[in-house]
Amino acid sequence: MTRARLSLPSPVKGLSVRLLVLTIFFVMLAEVLIFVPSIARYRLSYLEEKLASAHLAVLALEATPDQMVSEELEGELLDYVGAHSIALKRPDRGKLMLMREPPGPVHASYDLRGAGAFALIADAFGSLTSPGDRVIRVVGTSPHQPNAMVEVVIEEKPLCQAMFAFGERILVLSLAISLITAALVYVALHLMMVRPMRRVTASMTRFREDPEDVTAQIQPSNRTDEIGVAERELASMQGRLATALHQKTRLAALGIAVTKVSHDLKNILASARLVSDRLADSGDPDVRRLAPTLVKTIDRAVHLCQQTLNFTQEGPPRLEISRFDLAMLVEDIAGEIAAAQTSDSLAAGPVVNHLPTELEVEADRDQLYRVFSNLLRNAVEAGATRVEVAAQTHNGDLSVTIADDGPGLPPRVRDNIFQPFSGTMKQGGTGLGLAIARDLVRAHGGDITLTGTDASGTAFQIELPRRAKTGRPRRGPGSDDGGNRTRTPSSELRAAS
């Protein structure tokens, strides 16, 4: 199936535009937070100027002998201040007033003495949201004489107009600052982050489409920041992955060739095996003496071809779950090994089975037979005189230890013991046994590990769940209809393995 080609988003829908919009939004948000105390401060300054102008205007009364002025002059003084009435109170003197008829009743009164920040902010927004035709009374200390109290009655409409004009100036200034800041941030982020990230993304897309194309791999820059580290790590990963894919392609082609050669070679060796059987009936005693050696050599070659074909053709293990006694399975394998020692005169000791007879597991009996048979036979063929099998349970899982007193594994085998075609020390071996055994154990939800090896012996540990994690148990070959365990014939188990 052809995968759709990925395309990078356009600059309008890309990360740069999002950064631009976010920058404008955050700058405007900051300006709003600045505007709230600024408008309250502007209103306070406006009212304090009114109080200062009122103080200067009312001082004109002190220049007259009777502290009175004409109505015409009084009107001019009130117009200069923009107030309907002015009153000045001082502790050491009397009260001075300038007054004319207000256009209506006083709607609100504000005392600037000791007003807190939140009260000033609330009063400022109250003025902005008012109808605009109110008459207000303002009381505060005179800026020119701290011990003098000034009281004025003014119309609120000029104050609201001045506050809205101030807000418009703040808005224009905020927009200008936001756009300039956003443009600078946009250019900086685009050059430092967005463009390098688009380059990395484009390289990843090209590499995904053709991993073996050398030109698709990214060329890291000399940056020392996180993006530079990401570029170098991506280049390293692409190089290793391309090398691995190239090797796997060559190994796949080699595997196909080996499979074809092994298949043809197996047929040739089968014919040679039939001919070699007749050599045992030869009248020449030297021929009869050498015939068994020749037959065994051909059998090992056929077995090698068969193992190679099985490994290349087998898919994931298919399990047939059953409940059976694990100790009985080990006893069957031990009996076969003992019989093989007697017939082949091999110098190897018996298998010591420490598993309890009531140790039942839910697993594929045939597949576990292959696993334990491979480990036990390997130990015996390596020269072990004693192989012990023991087990312990932990949180419902089973841990089986297989330890022998053999000569141990050499380092070259130890490092590749579970790798196909690598982890073998037998002459003519394929190194597939332990690789297949580990695949079978992992198919059951467990694992097999090499826990130790030295001159005193080797130990493997098999972790298995006591109960199958998938599938339903069936009555296995080791159980009869009444639930009593019965021993499966060794010949049947050999055929299954």
TrEMBL record:
<dbReference type="InterPro" id="IPR003661">
    <property type="entry name" value="HisK_dim/P_dom"/>
</dbReference>
<feature type="transmembrane region" description="Helical">
    <location>
        <begin position="20"/>
        <end position="40"/>
    </location>
</feature>
<protein>
    <recommendedName>
        <fullName>histidine kinase</fullName>
        <ecNumber>2.7.13.3</ecNumber>
    </recommendedName>
</protein>
<keyword id="KW-0472">Membrane</keyword>
<keyword id="KW-0067">ATP-binding</keyword>
<feature type="domain" description="Histidine kinase">
    <location>
        <begin position="260"/>
        <end position="468"/>
    </location>
</feature>
<keyword id="KW-0418">Kinase</keyword>
<dbReference type="GO" id="GO:0005886">
    <property type="term" value="C:plasma membrane"/>
</dbReference>
<dbReference type="InterPro" id="IPR003660">
    <property type="entry name" value="HAMP_dom"/>
</dbReference>
<keyword id="KW-0547">Nucleotide-binding</keyword>
<feature type="transmembrane region" description="Helical">
    <location>
        <begin position="170"/>
        <end position="193"/>
    </location>
</feature>
<dbReference type="InterPro" id="IPR050980">
    <property type="entry name" value="2C_sensor_his_kinase"/>
</dbReference>
<dbReference type="Pfam" id="PF02518">
    <property type="entry name" value="HATPase_c"/>
</dbReference>
<dbReference type="InterPro" id="IPR005467">
    <property type="entry name" value="His_kinase_dom"/>
</dbReference>
<dbReference type="GO" id="GO:0000155">
    <property type="term" value="F:phosphorelay sensor kinase activity"/>
</dbReference>
<feature type="domain" description="HAMP">
    <location>
        <begin position="191"/>
        <end position="246"/>
    </location>
</feature>
<keyword id="KW-0812">Transmembrane</keyword>
<dbReference type="InterPro" id="IPR036097">
    <property type="entry name" value="HisK_dim/P_sf"/>
</dbReference>
<dbReference type="GO" id="GO:0005524">
    <property type="term" value="F:ATP binding"/>
</dbReference>
<dbReference type="InterPro" id="IPR003594">
    <property type="entry name" value="HATPase_dom"/>
</dbReference>
<keyword id="KW-0597">Phosphoprotein</keyword>
<keyword id="KW-0808">Transferase</keyword>
<keyword id="KW-1133">Transmembrane helix</keyword>
<dbReference type="InterPro" id="IPR036890">
    <property type="entry name" value="HATPase_C_sf"/>
</dbReference>
<keyword id="KW-1003">Cell membrane</keyword>
<feature type="region of interest" description="Disordered">
    <location>
        <begin position="459"/>
        <end position="497"/>
    </location>
</feature>
<dbReference type="InterPro" id="IPR004358">
    <property type="entry name" value="Sig_transdc_His_kin-like_C"/>
</dbReference>
